[in-house]
């Protein structure tokens, strides 16, 4: 049997290798064939020195470049860290402790919680370095005093602390799932409305062309327009100007400027603006209360008590920063025709500064969902929703039937909507009619606004709970108002959001026997955030900041909810949301460029001199500006340390999703606590117009 080719080649290769190893002769030709000699050309000694010098120079340049990059990076990191420390130190020095009772109580509780968390973290770090996390000691086998203490802690934690924490966790998870289902149902209802193209249809339509001669005045009902305001010199011009240019017969419309300003210069400016429009033939009156009781509700109530109000059928209400389109009344009033049970037509808000900064972008996500989904779905399917306080038209008879404006809460708009619904009146929401307005650009203004919006509903719920039960509406409407409108969306949402993500989640890191599933921490909130962003698709890149910021705002909403529910004094405080008047400036510039401001009026320059003088004063006041200092929010900072400490503990247990969530959520609390979100700058000047700008407007 012949040998295979592989064996023959192996024998030949072994023979050649042995011959080369022994250095034997007789194989010169084979060696010449198998051996390859590579020779390096000779190098001159002077060339060697030159090559060596050039190599050293290149290496030195490389090392210098690396050193320069390292130094610049170190300087940047150090300067950034020092800037952060200086900012924090300055804000700590200028900060005032929480003034309201509820905020102070919540801050003290969170401080105590922080101390407990830090002590637990130190204890767990010591146990980790001792190796007790891997082999937990028992009370019987423990030797050292610290080891005995840790063994006792493990038994107490597992037997007495973890079970109630797990029960609370389960309750919050159930509430979280119920609220998520409610949110999903609302989104599906919105999709159904879009798919079927459902929207309110008016019984009549007014011609699109501007109102002029040859019209029948009887076709245009008497409309009262009210603009309540208080010390809002940055925005009063835009609202008065927009309302005075509404396309409606002048004989059938009266505008009330309800000025509650306490600053004399602001009163003078608003009076001058009213006089300017009076000279142009607009029926507009100025009202100022000497005794400011009841805030906005008291202002509106006093205006409705005027003798001439009985001649009007409808009232349109706009806040000081709102700019209704010229055809606003033509698109809203016709819906009342033939519907005697209709009390309110609410329109949508549109925001002129939604892209101003990250804070306004995140607010736009929330409010877009509120109007596009919540208001629209409730308006279509149950004809009830909360009045937004502005950009709406009321039937005056409905206001009188439900008792008019009351001063008992800081959410007078929701109060009157609830009472009107209990009296059997219906509401309509128009998603395609939009009123321009302004979002608060600073975190301080936004925080105060949210505090009022979440404490007021709880005040109202306490006051009207028995009225809801005694009302003559159907059981389904009572259940919807109590369980969905108040409890689920106004009480449960801030409760579980704060408790689950700011209290329970950190505690489960130190009590591993109580488990908070990853899908509760990450997946379900992510899906809900996607649903919230659907009405504002351009905001999808901000989905992660939105999720983190909403959890951060939960501490403010939770404190406000507790304050309103238990009648703390701060729940009755009304703070006017600060506006910057950006939209009014843009409008004036646009008017100046197009010349429409001059062309649309027939008055002479002499009659406008007073208005020009007052506008010059306003420009000077804006130009001077006010010192705006960023604040330090102690409650948010304390919660940041709690979450960051919990993230360190989760790192010891190698809990990936929990660690990253706690880390980024803690950093978000740091950013918000240092007031690094929203309008920035230690001194922020309000934008104003120069004399050149004024001459451009009026030349």
From TrEMBL:
Domain Glycosyltransferase 2-like, chain residue ranges per copy: 315-509
Subcellular location field: Golgi apparatus membrane
Matching SUPFAM superfamilies: Nucleotide-diphospho-sugar transferases
Keywords: Cell wall biogenesis/degradation, Glycosyltransferase, Golgi apparatus, Membrane, Transferase, Transmembrane, Transmembrane helix
Gene3D superfamilies: Spore Coat Polysaccharide Biosynthesis Protein SpsA, Chain A
PANTHER family: GLUCOMANNAN 4-BETA-MANNOSYLTRANSFERASE 9, XYLOGLUCAN GLYCOSYLTRANSFERASE 6-RELATED
Family that this chain belongs to: Belongs to the glycosyltransferase 2 family. Plant cellulose synthase-like C subfamily.
Protein name (database record): Glycosyltransferase 2-like domain-containing protein
Species of provenance: Brassica campestris (Field mustard)
Source taxonomy: Eukaryota, Viridiplantae, Streptophyta, Embryophyta, Tracheophyta
